Amino acid sequence: MFIQTEQTPNPATLKFLPGRAVMEQGTADFRSAEVARRSPLAERLFAVDGVEGVFLGADFITVTKTAERDWQVLKPVILGSIMEHFTSGASAVTSDDTDAASDAAGDDEVVTQIKELLDTRVRPAVAQDGGDIVFRRYEDGVVYLRMQGSCSGCPSSAATLKIGIENMLKHFIPEIREVRPVE
Q1: Contacts of 131 (CB under 8 A, 6+ apart)
Q2: How far apart are CA 13 and CA 52, in angstroms?
Q3: 100: which DSSP letter?
Q4: How far does the chain reach from its first CA to its final CA, in angstroms?
Q5: 3-state secondary structure of 48
Q6: Which of 111, 122, 126 is nearest to 176 (CA)?
Q7: What band does 134 get if pLDDT is binned at 50, 70 and 90?
Q8: For residue 158, what are the contacts with CB-CB under 8 A and spacing of at least 6?
Q9: β-strand partners of 127
Q10: Which pLDDT score is estimated for 101?
Q11: Cβ(67)–Cβ(12) under 8 Å?
Q12: Which pLDDT value is given to residue 99?
């Protein structure tokens, strides 16, 4: 098994590409070992000293490290853990409680437009960098988005939200005044 790695805009994260599907649908974001219990893969990665976040996408795994650890030391151990997981035959997650965008039933026209723009123009681009941006809610002209994977904690995430996503959404949907991140 050959696992490729790619740097992301966030220096604390690396994107690992195992060359096979990781998640069948949606994404899964684990920000601590305690919440990783539903993912054998995330649990295995959190067992590596220095791992502080794991994000699972369709065909990639993004790992966030602590500031004290160096990628030169962590990368080989993480690669080994990923390889062990996939050769074991275990699934990446044991339940389907993914962080996919909420069900569209009952959404008003503005929310439907926001979700469509995020799904077609934003999410594919941020997935290339090892992250995801998920719609949470829309209230009084303000769009609330959750940043995951390499986007969470990335030095350029505020600029991505304000300059990129906010301007694009305002262009297509005049009712939008602002975009804000949420946890």
Answers
A1: 8, 10, 55, 62, 147, 148, 149, 150, 151, 152, 154
A2: 10
A3: P
A4: 35
A5: coil
A6: 111
A7: confident
A8: 181
A9: none
A10: 44
A11: yes
A12: 47
Beta bridge partners of 126: none
CB atoms within 10 A of CB 165: 21
Question: What DSSP string runs through 115-167?
Answer: HHHIIIIIHHHHHHTTEEEEEEEEETTEEEEEEEETTTT-TTHHHIIIIIIIH
Residue type present at position 95: S
Predicted confidence at residue 160, as pLDDT, reads 77
The C-alpha atoms of residue 148 and residue 92 are separated, in whole angstroms, by 17
State both tokens at 178: 């602002």
Strand order in the sheet with 4-7: 4-7, 13-17, 61-65, 51-56, 28-30
Helices (H) and strands (E) in the chain, counts: 6, 8
